[in-house]
Structure formats: C-alpha cells, structure tokens
Amino acid sequence: MNINAIIIEDEIAAQRNLIALLADVAPNITILAVIDSVADSVEFLKSNASPDLIFMDIHLADGHSFHIFDSVDVSSPVIFTTAYDQYALDAFKLNSIEYLLKPINAADLNHALNKLKTLTNIELIEKLRKLSYREVGGVSAKSFLLPFKDKLIPINADDICHIYTTNEKVQLTTLAGSSYPMDKSLDTLMGLLPNDSFYRANRQFIIARKAIKDIDVWFGNRLSVNLSQPTQERVIISKNRVAEFKVWLGVR
Questions:
Q1: Among 9, 66, 229, 252, which is disulfide-ready with 161 (CB 3.0 to 4.6 Å)?
Q2: pLDDT one-digit tens code per residue, 114-125
C-alpha cells in the first residue's frame, strides 16, 4: 500500500538523510513535500488533504513545532525527530508519542514505522495540544545529546561555557574545555536554554552566566566579556546592549 507523507524539517542534511533512509526502508512511502518552518507547515496542512504520515522535527527555525497543532487540526499520524536528550525522550514516551533520535538510522526508522501502525493517533493529538513550549523546552534544555565521531555525548546545560557560530557552523564549549559541533542555530538554542542562565551576547555567542570570569570596559563604551574557557574571538557586548546585559547580570 502506498503511503503519502510529508517531512517537516529545517536542516537540509537531516532532510536528505531521512529521504534516503525512507527510499531504502519504506519505498512505498511517497514524499509529497518537504517543509522547513511552522508557518509553511500550517499553510500546507490547511490547503491540502491530510497526508497519511508526517515526519516532524521538534524545533524549527521559526519556532517550536508544537505550535503547528495550535493553528491547524492535524489528523495524520506523526513521527517526531529530535536531537535532544533522554529527559525529553522520557517525556515523549509518557505521552505515547513516537520519536526518532537524530542522527536517524535505518533500524530506528523501521522500528518507528512498525510501532506507529499499532497506535491511535487521535489520542496523540489530544495530548499534543496540552503540551506547551515551556513544558517541552524546559525538559529539553536540561541536557543535549550531541553526535561526536561515532558516539553520542550527553552534555548538561549546567556544564556549558559558551556556544559560538561562524560560517554557519555552531560549536558548544563546556566549562571543562571540551568542544562539540551542534546542528541548531543560536536563535533556536536560545529558545531552549533558560534566559536567567544564558545570554545572547551578539550574533556569534551565547554565554553562560556561571562561565563569566570578568568584564573589560572596551572601546566605544562596549564591554568585553572574559569567560572561564578561551573563546575563538572576543565576546563583545555592543554599546546599545550594555544596559540590558547589566540588568541580566543583576547589576544596578
């Protein structure tokens, strides 16, 4: 039996990987569309017949994918994909939601497709509507599971020193000095991390409050933040954000 599916995923590499895996594991699945945002997903689902199956990344470039369920009735079975840790996965298990942990492999995909056949999606959708961004984000933000070489490395949010981006690559550095690549943008990560503990210093850095060693007054009434681990370049707070940064630090 042919199955019509859509993929809601904002990372090109993840899109290509899932499409290639489906071609091998489930050639009877036809991909109708690949969508990379909450807004476009809502528009597609409002304008088209419900697909037989949806593969959905949890965190998209323009927001949390659970917001899709606030805007449109979804009657299709959903298989979620996530790059996050066991805490998040435990929460999804409790809500009877099927998921795939990135990086997705053929065995896990096949298992998810077989398991989904036994589930009643109406129950899943009702529970999804009860989940808020705060609840899911709060669970996800406690820890991240990062692919590194041939392993998956769990990193607690409390152990993060800073996150840096350059040339569309994102790197996390821990308080202990270890560094790992990440597959999410700084905008997305700031939506996951607690605002009282992490600050978006500029376009290139997210810094942890506990990692701040001291602060230099820099040229042009800017600030240069020194962290407990070396950074790829200076962490500069612009003049027009100095007041906001001081409030975040609790400085009066």
A1: 229
A2: 877 665 454 545
